[in-house]
């Protein structure tokens, strides 16, 4: 008899609930509670949520429930923007089927893997195919994958698909599928450029949005660490040692930084692995396997791993650098504090990066300022918020005159003369700066003349 837990009322297969129980997944998350009932009924879904909210199960559980195991044809397709995320979803699917692995066939189809071997693999007609859009589209063209019986199409991390330029391939896959289709789209954000795609294919979708005000998981404690005059990588190493985490992800902004930082950690004798774009496909797959098996205490990663990759047991995150796109801060620190667990995040920053920290604070993220001293992490005086800079280096008086000139110029400008207007404003600002410089020069000459007397 299947043990009772929060998933039993969805009327899932007993072997699925048993697998969830063994994985200690006993209560649906917010997004799972909102999406699973509608998805089981075949409705189109738009799920907008941050990472770490359990969205993968929200589409896998109803998919497994609705698959017809007697029909030996492809019935569902899941596309992801990266090989790593596709692999991660496939692993989670296998964990759901672990109590009955022969119930349905699944296949992972991504670039970087032997193409002929993949073609051979899909000839056995997997009911669920997971992969990257480019390779799935290739196998459509080769007629190795036949779309005629597909009734479920899932697009994961849709905003990243858009950013990486994969939306045309995602669209072409959709065009090849039957008209009667359940589409489920999941994304951290819903950009304006994604809207035409959603309107084109989705029919009265169920929209589920996890609290937009909660930027990061509630139990993550955020820290800033001032770099000051020190070497950033050396400071990251000292911080990593002082924290002594269970598993710590260290995010860098570039692959070069990741390679160099990994070398520093290895030289210091730390148990470290890495995951970044310069690793060959086979090595990246092996790296994810080793990371998930908790073989490393420290893992150096780029933003390649920030979206969707679920690494269990991450206790700490260190940002070696602040990401240029601040949305990625949320995705990075979301690797810890997963599913209501506690987590600690540390971000190294220099004075000129104060503005980025300010903008994160404006999103509701609270930081504690700490430093590493004598191998210990301790709280230091509060970080000063950066002062806003004036757009032009002119005095208040000159700025007032400039505003007046700009207002007059604006009144005189006729439609179609925007460039002339902008040029005039620049020239006005230039004249004011020259006046000020001349004024400063005269004042200095007078002061020097007074001294010589």
Would you write up a description of this structure?
With 453 residues, the chain is an alpha/beta fold. It folds into three domains: 8-209, 3-Layer(aba) Sandwich (Rossmann fold); 220-379, Rossmann fold; 396-441. It contains 16 helices and 15 strands. The strands form two sheets. The chain has an eight-stranded mixed sheet with strand order 10-11-9-12-13-8-14-15, sandwiched between helices. Strands 3-4-2-5-6-1-7 form a seven-stranded parallel sheet, sandwiched between helices. Strand 3 (106-109), helix 5 (115-122) and strand 4 form a beta-alpha-beta unit. Helix 3 (55-66) crosses helix 4 (83-96), helix 6 (133-141) packs parallel to helix 8 and helix 15 runs antiparallel to helix 16 (418-452). It is globular.
